[in-house]
Fold this protein.
Amino acid sequence: MTSEPSGLPARKFRERYPLLALILQRLGLSGVLLLAVSVLIFAGVEALPGDFATTYLGQSATPQAVENIRSQLGLDRPVTTRYFEWLGNALQGDFGTSWASRNSVSEQIGNRLGNSLFLAFFAALVSVPLAIILGMVAVHFRNRIPDKIINVISLAAISLPEFFIGYLLILFFAVNLGLATFPSTVFEGMGFLDRLKAIALPAATLVLVVLAHMMRMTRAAILSVMSSAYMETAELKGLGAFRAIVKHAAPNAIAPIVNVVALNLAYLVVGVVVVEVVFVYPGMGQYMVDAVTVRDMPVVQACGLIFAAFYILLNMLADIIAIVANPRLRHPR
């Protein structure tokens, strides 16, 4: 009696459940990628020039004092030992203690992460539907004046860096017109409407940064679908052009649209560092920059790992949605 090859059950599972197999594969790859990123973050922070003990004590510190601080922080232990200890604690939600403030990093990140997610959520709430609508409008009026105006404005928005857009908004709406608040300060117990008013300028900056890219990719994805035979059939049957775009073209272009939306949503969470610094907004980005200036490595490592986890998670969700949207995988023969 011959033994069944070890790879045969896995092959049968992929053939019988191709959709589930691809989803499980994406989940596994995301876990491996996050583990690899954790190694890079820890190694990169270790390789940074400078030393917290020297920064904390000053240039006039004696070698013995520096060595005592390093011993207290555990920096005299092997790198691999410290990495696995840090990773094990991080998987349990414990990112250690801040070297600078001596407070729990997890507690500080909890407050800061909430502020960053609040800002990113409202920026996404405006930018995602607006980008999709403008993309469909550009397709409907393609090669005409509305399409050209949208393209020119989107190219201008893509060309300008976010800090420059932020400073322009501060100049016009906060300094000259006095319609918005600066700096964008939020605090615990602040009212919802006051929070919305405080984040108006940073949220508008993020919207302008990601809107153009999402809109152009939406336009390109729908245009590629418009040349399909079933779109010509829909138009020959008398279906209105804009209705055909909304009902047939947009749903069939969902995979590339979801991918670009997910990438920009990841940017809204990960790329807020510059915007938060410009507007002095108390989020994760500002917290990370402050930690870098004083060489507070536990905070830098924690922020880097959380940013990477959000980026990987959103891209994984985009892949899964694109897989589920594929009719050949949902209805295998």
In short: The mean pLDDT is 78. Residues 231 and 244 are 7 Å apart (CA to CA). The two ends are 32 Å apart (CA to CA).
